[in-house]
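Action item from last week, closing it out:
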Amino acid sequence: MTHALDDITVLDFSHLLQGPFATQLLGDAGAKIIKIERPGKGDLFRTMTFKNRWVGGTESPNFLAWNRNKRSLAIDLKADESRETIYELAKNVDVVLHNFRPGVMERLGYGYDDFSRINPGIIYCSASGYGDSGPYVSRPGQDMLLQGLTGLAAATGRGDGPPVPVGAGFADQIGALNIVYGILTALHWRERTGEGQEIKVDLLSALLQHQNQEMVWVMNFGENFERPNSSIGHPGMDAPFGVYPVKDGWVSIAMSPFARLVDVLGNDDLLKYNDPQTLYDDRDEVWAAIAEETGKWSMKDLLDALLAADIWCGEIKSHLEVMDDPQVRHRGLVQTYEHASAGPVKVIGPAVRMSKTPPSIDRPAPMVGQHTEEILAEFGIAPERIRQLRDRGLIEQADIAERKAKAD
């Protein structure tokens, strides 16, 4: 199968979520992703999971989620000989990516200037929490911390409760999309001019950019949103926009003509609220009145009635329920690949469809150093030098049989 990026090679020094998701997206499009990891330990995400559960008894679902379509090269980055080996690879790669704190890669000899001297056409992307300068430069750039700092948590949840972080790594994932945007833009520029360049992205900028709708309102009116005390779905919205109970769960109702919603619910007393300012000022009261009516319906009956009236609505589903959603099944979004240690792993497949060069899952997430010697040989590193690196403990080649034995 032809892939759009199958002529692009990426040296990926990133870890955790932001960088690995970005390189997974590039890998889905065919880019050759070489994941640089620490011998013996690898990406920190390999050691982290939810509820102490491990896929196949050994593998982190957090790591598996963001590291398919990659090969792993385990090498000690601090040794001079390792650095020279990385420089040899850099002569023939297109992109270098990392998300270490500012200054770390430069101190190790892996900054943009180091790589551009070796390969002037190289594209070098650094991803950080707050940028590479300023009063927060040494702070940890973690997703929940950025949600708090940028106003997202303060705008989420009920007004009579605490700020609520989004239930996924939202900042990291938005940052990953900015990385991909920057890299693809730089690749296009290099195609036109032959010039490489340095790209810098950060979570602070990314998360503010993706709240631009809210920020434009707040900045231009000099006023904060106030969170409702009910399940209205956005601090700037009026009723009925929100989540409502039914007999067997919850449904969401978005922007819809209020009178038409009242007609479906069958209680004309609600029409006393049918005024734009009232629907905002008294939105908690309106929500409670609507919720009293929706609670009389089953989910199916209410959704059927609302959809028949062309009212924007939908189910509230758990993650397990989403797996079996008919539209999710129809789109083939849940896919399975075979992992060397964990066995069959269910994942969410690529989200972008392309007629000529469709993204695909061609490799499972790698084990630490699973492809070390294979990668070095491909880049012309002599067998004797590979042996020397291995004997000195500077590189690691994964033992799949040993890993499977541990799982058993």
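Closing note: The chain has a mean pLDDT of 95.
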